[in-house]
Amino acid sequence: MGLESIIFPPTYLNRKKLRSHVNRKTILITGASSGIGEALTYQLANYSCHLIIVARREEKLKKIKENLNKFPATVNIYKADLRNEHEMEGLLSLLHALPNGLDIIVSNAGKSINRSIYDSLDRYHDFTRTMNINYFAPVNILLSTIPLLKKNNGQIINISTINALLAPVPYFAAYQASKSAFDVWLRSVSSELTTEGIATTSIYLPLVRTPMIQPTIAYRSMPAMSPENVATIICKSMYTRRKKYQPWWLIFGQILSVFARRLTILPKKEKKE
């Protein structure tokens, strides 16, 4: 048994329950052109549901739709940079025009930055763009669509990160702060949403082998979940409507992260003359 199969054991998916649950439902997936969003689209395409897949790369969305032409699901694509106000307004108008409303939102679009604070002193935009896509965009979508979800007893699934539950780490200030912001926001409003029949699910993920991790060379040889495994976890959360998924070992990681932070000694930056 390989290390990855121990750290990231496979998830059992009751396909009969999933089929019954998503039948004729409308599901929005953001960040759907690659990685987790793409894998989820391909899994759900096997069922008679309506998928609205959103991403910036229209050509990739078109290719996915073409590949799924003969699958049971109805797939509609929408090109949008969720940081762009005009494109966001267009997406929200589309969602409000849906004849049968909206049932499930999978908030998956995100951006990660790995950079020392000393390399960020003249890069304020690193923080605005991570906050825009990781926090403001999903909040904007939900503020507009909560009435739609309430009408259909819908569900919000947030694709989060274990970093939101770990002690802060160097080099990831922009990413960790922005992901934590939406995680706290969703947990804060979840009790209000639950009383109105809207389920909320937070999926805390470790490293996932997606294009997002490619710029960080060290990540390429580290154990990581496959997007397909994550997609299965998301699908299962749709019919269980559980509030949270996290790796079995996260509790140990949380303890370790506190001690590791105390012991971490980073090299000092050379002073410029």
UniProtKB/TrEMBL annotation:
Q: Under the cellular component aspect of Gene Ontology, which terms does the record hold? A: membrane
Q: What's in the keyword line of the UniProt record?
A: Oxidoreductase
Question: Which Pfam families does the UniProt entry name for this protein?
Answer: adh_short
The UniProt GO MF terms for this protein read: oxidoreductase activity
InterPro entries linked to this entry: NAD(P)-bd_dom_sf (IPR036291), SDR_fam (IPR002347)
Q: Give the top-rank taxon of the lineage listed in the UniProt record for this protein.
A: Bacteria
Into which family does the record put it?
Belongs to the short-chain dehydrogenases/reductases (SDR) family.
Q: Please state what the protein is called.
A: Short-chain dehydrogenase
